[in-house]
Amino acid sequence: MAEPLISVGLPPSSRIVEYARAAERLGYHRVWVFDSPALYGDLWIALARIAEGTERIRFGAGVAVPSLRHPMVTAAAIATVEELAPGRLVTAFGTGFTARRTLGQKAMRWAELATYVRQVRTLLDGGVTEIDGQPCQMLHPPGWAPERPIRSPLWAAPGGPKGFATARELDVDGIALMMPPGEDVSEWPASALLINGTVVRPGEDHTSPRLVEAAGPWFATVFHGVWELFPDALDGVPGGAAWRDAMLAARPEAERHLAVHEGHGMVLTDRDRAAIAEAGPAILGGGWTGDAAAIRARLREVGDTGIGEVIFTAAGPDILDELAAFAAATGASASSGEPTDAQAPAGR
Question: CA 301 from chain center: how many Å?
Fold first, then answer.
């Protein structure tokens, strides 16, 4: 199978356009933008800024959380961005594990997500759909939004059997995955896999400050996720017990959800840094942290499962350097270019 296209995933920030322009220059296929308002800036403002601030790179909501916005708000946002940069947007929807946990809520149910995606698709098609017991329709006259139907691709971010079943039921235009699928996904019209890590430079090891700051933020999300799902298992995670004890001391019990995901995928908190120091060489086994040859081997492995796109979630204090190093390691410029219909469907 062909090697996957190389994309980047970033949180919204004041520098998002600078990073998107660098990704465009380096040959990245797409910029995916995260959606977690308690942690990052606004998803749709960031996407609109990228649309106006770049020339050709594609971009996506990766992933949008339905419960944060009325379906009409999302449909209008998609329409606005499509008007700014026709055909360059993809919107993937997920149940909002981190985004909702930071608000003290559980992730959405897949049935709720399915209803929402159908509502947004109907609105973009120009149809009437019932929302909150009332019929709704995009009423924008010419000049205020693109003519309907708006064929912007809608993806899902499935996790587990229910997620994949929902994605198939919705007949989505693509899937965005948070972990390797463990099965061939070439049946899907398009697919993307989020990965993290850093390109290890000569002479670096687990104590190197640059490596820790670049790979550490996503390594630390393992502590966050294990705490939320299997808190007792943290004792078996390198550095997990130290992280847990510091997190529990950071906030009173009623506010604990405000402490768990601090810095998520962006920067290291003091407790993250201390736990990573205790974890030692384990950080070298997190994500795609390795030299260029190891990263290229990983790329071939996921390509063999049918993954069409890899999303590098760059982190640390020097995002521009991370983008350049990963592009050089993977040959991003060689694999970029106009995607095929299977890689970027026109929407339904």
Answer: 20
> What local confidence, expressed as pLDDT, does residue 341 receive?
33
Neighbours of 242 (CB within 10 A): 18
Pairing of strands 191-195, 134-136: unpaired
According to CATH, the superfamily of the domain at 5-199+290-335 is Luciferase-like domain (3.20.20.30)
Tokens at 287, concatenated = 């994500």
Q: Which residues, 6+ apart, have CB-to-CB distance to 302 below 8 Å?
A: 4, 180, 193, 310
| Predicted model pTM | 0.94
- Output the pLDDT for position 339: 44
Six token digits for residue 334: 């060689």
Instruction: Note the pLDDT of residue 344.
Output: 44
Tell me the one-letter amino acid at 95: T
Omega before residue 142 within 30° of 0, cis: no
CA angle in degrees (0–180, nearest 5) for 134-138-142: 155
3-state secondary structure at position 242: helix
Q: Are 81 and 42 in contact (CB under 8 A)?
A: no
Residue 265 exposed, middle or buried by CB count within 10 Å (0-12, 13-18, 19+): buried
Distance of CA 62 to the CA centre of its chain: 4
3-state SS, residue 100: helix
Q: pLDDT under 50 in the chain at which residues?
A: 337-346
Q: Residue 3's closest CA among 291, 339, 302?
A: 302
Query: What digits encode the pLDDT tens for the residues 292-340?
Result: 999 999 999 999 999 999 999 999 999 999 999 999 999 987 555 444 3
What pLDDT is recorded for position 334? 59
Cβ atoms of residues 6 and 28 within 8 Å = yes
H helical segments located in the chain: 16-26, 43-53, 71-84, 97-101, 110-125, 160-170, 209-229, 240-250, 257-260, 270-279, 292-304, 319-330, 332-335
Range(s) of the chain covered by CATH 3.20.20.30 = 5-199+290-335
Interatomic CA distance for residues 33 and 43, integer angstroms: 7
